[in-house]
Design brief:
Oligomer: heterodimer
Bound molecules: thiamine diphosphate, iron/sulfur cluster
Largest sheet of chain A: 7 strands, mixed
CATH class of the largest domain in chain B: Alpha Beta
Structural class of chain A: alpha/beta
Number of helices of chain A: 10
Helix content of chain A: 25-40%
Strand order of the largest sheet of chain B: 3-2-4-5-7-6-13
CATH class of chain A: Alpha Beta
Radius of gyration of chain A: 18 Å
Number of domains of chain B: 2
Shape of chain A: globular
Strand content of chain B: 15-25%
């Protein structure tokens, strides 16, 4: 097969999603954020929701999520995305409103906003990137950091006796009556990416159907913060993160 | 209907006026002395009539960020609280100012610092007009002195907020919030449709349509060159507001030799003090700033040329007096009289302070 045949449209097996623009991404190569962004763009397009979507970006590495996917976005203060989403959705019940948050944003500084939005059963989708670390500020300990895991603020490794335990916030959210869907996914293999996409799709459909709060946790890598290669980070995640944060649905009603 | 006069508390007037204005959403958290605002909304249940959203949030932090989310959609949204709660709102207020979002904030002040007291105070003047949150920003600040103005300033606050894409605050206190007076509520206005909002606020995040680029509401800009430009744009807007929107009331200042400067509840007390002074043959006037920012400094400066002395009266240890002194710039003597911690000054106390501190 010559190169022209290979690149012809009918042989296309993989493409940049239509809603992803050409802005240069600031994410580190190998980081999970990029893969999840692609899924968001694909799902919004496939559900025909571009004109109905309001995205809420966090403070964290995804602070610039609004630069890459061509929908309307609001940039929240650190941890407050669910509060913004609450108002955006209540004032526009026909829109699809989602937040995109890291573990520091969602499970530390924004715990109150997260739990209460979910407890009220706000009709929003929460996409939660759990990479066990504060990526943006240079690799400090997160509420989800594993026992003994080294970060710049736990250089000897997290000591759960003095620094708290890895916070399984999705488990906590799943028990709330306002939550209709809670799931934990990964994007470390092609098969996992497919499952994560299905989860995001269901969460967005739930928002449109006003079914309650959906939370899609994506156990992710932060190869820079973890100081590993992208491939090494994937392996480390499978070996160390998944036992603490096992993948699968926690609730789906 | 339009001539209908009601008797109600200042806090209630705010809620009823907001419903009639066509407000899209209220987000609040209870705190004395302003809980009647959210209680009145819940009692009136406007979601059944105008479709207005009313929500009791989990905290003032959340409530203000809900306002951010609603305002970013171009909706007319508001929140209210009292001093300790307003401190919690400062994060959101700074972000609202930085993202240039119109909204209405209400502070029914109580005495501080800390948990302080539930009695009235004006000690949040600095917090409101000098910043409060981080960054170089300004809040359009309206200071009502009656239940009628509590009602009227809801629409004024929203109108100015939308005109300049800037948050407005009604800065009032427990006296005005709790006292009952006659009030004529505004006429009912219909809430704007989504189409009307899209036209009025082309920046609103209501879903990207094919005819435009995505709308992004953010206060973030990492390029300092652009961030300086953004700040310069804010400052130009603030100068424009200072030029156009100064409001004040001048009472018996024409022939006055001495002038009281006071806002809100303190101005009501000073009105009586002016009467008492004049009965004694002392020519006293009152200048009442209605907008605390933009501050009527020019009007005060002009009066200073003719006055033997001025007294600012505040329910605090001396905050607005600094702005009065800046405006007067040494042309006349400016003294301060205030009661602290929730004590309200009396007209007699004001007159005595005028005699002791200014006339001598
Ligand atoms: C009020 C406030 N506190 C602290 C910060 C600094 N800060 C920015 S991002 C961040 C942590 C982000 O971590 P996470 O939410 O896990 O996202 P990640 O960067 O790992 O994707 C912190 C502490 C801030 N911007 N605002
Ligand atoms: S610091 Fe970590 S989370 Fe942030 S972009 Fe880099 S790899 Fe991703």
């Amino acid at each position: 097969m010559d190169i022209n045949t290979i690149v012809s449209p009918e042989n296309l097996v993989y493409a940049k999603p239509e809603l992803m623009n050409n802005n240069h991404m600031h994410y580190c190569p190998g980081c999970s954020h990029g893969v999840v962004h692609k899924l968001l763009a694909e799902v919004i397009k496939e559900l025909g929701l571009q004109e109905k979507t309001i995205g809420i970006a966090p403070v964290g590495c995804a602070v610039f999520a609004y630069k890459y996917i061509d929908v309307d976005w609001q940039e929240a203060a650190h941890g407050r995305a669910p509060a913004l989403a609450t108002a955006a959705k209540r004032l526009n019940p026909d829109k699809m409103v989602f937040t995109y948050q890291g573990d520091g944003d969602l499970a530390a500084i924004g715990t109150a906003e997260t739990i209460h939005a979910a407890n009220r059963g706000e009709n929003i989708a929460i996409i939660f990137i759990n990479n066990g670390i504060y990526g943006m500020t240079g690799g400090q300990m997160a509420p989800t950091t594993l026992d003994h895991m080294k970060t710049s603020t736990s250089p000897e490794g997290r000591d759960v006796h003095t620094m708290g335990n890895p916070l399984k916030i999705t488990d906590l959210l799943a028990i709330l009556d306002g939550v209709c869907y809670a799931t934990r996914q990964g994007v470390h293999t092609a098969a996992a990416v497919k499952r994560a996409k299905r989860a995001i799709k269901l969460a967005f459909e739930n928002s449109m159907a006003n079914k309650g709060t959906s939370i899609v946790e994506i156990v992710s890598t932060c190869n820079s913060g973890w100081k590993m290669t992208p491939a090494g980070a994937n392996d480390w995640m499978v070996e160390n993160m998944f036992p603490v944060y096992p993948l699968g649905d926690l609730k789906n009603i | 209907m339009s001539e209908e006069i009601s008797l109600m508390k200042g806090n209630e007037a705010i809620a009823y006026a907001a419903i009639r204005y066509g407000t899209d959403g209220y987000f609040g958290y209870p705190i004395t002395p302003q809980s009647e605002i959210i209680e009145t909304f819940m009692e009136a249940a406007p979601w059944k009539t105008t479709g207005m959203v009313v929500l009791q949030a989990e905290s003032e932090v959340a409530a203000t960020n809900m306002v951010y989310g609603g305002a970013a959609c171009g909706k007319a949204v508001m929140t209210s609280s009292s001093s300790p709660g307003i401190s919690l709102k400062q994060e959101g207020i700074s972000y609202l100012a930085g993202a240039e979002l119109p909204c209405l904030l209400v502070n029914v002040q109580r005495g501080g610092p800390g948990l302080g007291t539930i009695q009235p105070s004006q000690a949040d003047y600095f917090q409101t007009v000098k910043g409060g949150g981080h960054g170089d920003y300004r809040l359009i600040t309206l200071a009502p002195n009656s239940v009628q103005e509590m009602a009227d300033f809801v629409s004024l606050g929203f109108e100015l907020a939308f005109k300049y894409r800037n948050p407005s605050m009604i800065l009032t206190d427990g006296v005005i919030g709790q006292m009952m007076e006659k009030v004529k509520l505004p006429e009912y206005k219909r809430r704007r449709t989504e189409q009307e909002i899209r036209e009025q606020c082309p920046w609103a995040t209501l879903g990207k349509t094919p005819d435009r680029e995505p709308n992004i509401i953010t206060s973030l800009e990492l390029d300092p060159e652009i961030m300086e430009k953004n700040n310069e744009r804010f400052q130009a807007k603030y100068r424009e507001i200072e030029k156009n929107e100064v409001r004040f009331e001048s009472i018996q200042c024409e022939d006055a030799e001495y002038m009281l400067v006071a806002f809100g509840s303190a101005a009501r007390i000073c009105l009586k003090a002016v009467e008492l002074a004049r009965a004694e043959g002392i020519k006293v006037g009152l200048l009442r700033p209605i907008t605390l920012w933009p501050f009527p400094g020019e009007a005060i400066s002009k009066c200073a040329d003719r006055m033997k002395g001025m007294l600012t009266v505040e329910l605090n240890a001396g905050q607005m007096v600094e702005d009065v002194r800046l405006a007067v710039n040494g042309k006349a003597k400016v003294e301060h009289y205030g009661r602290l911690g929730g004590i309200v000054p009396t007209p007699d106390g004001v007159l005595q302070a005028l005699k002791e501190k200014v006339i001598k």
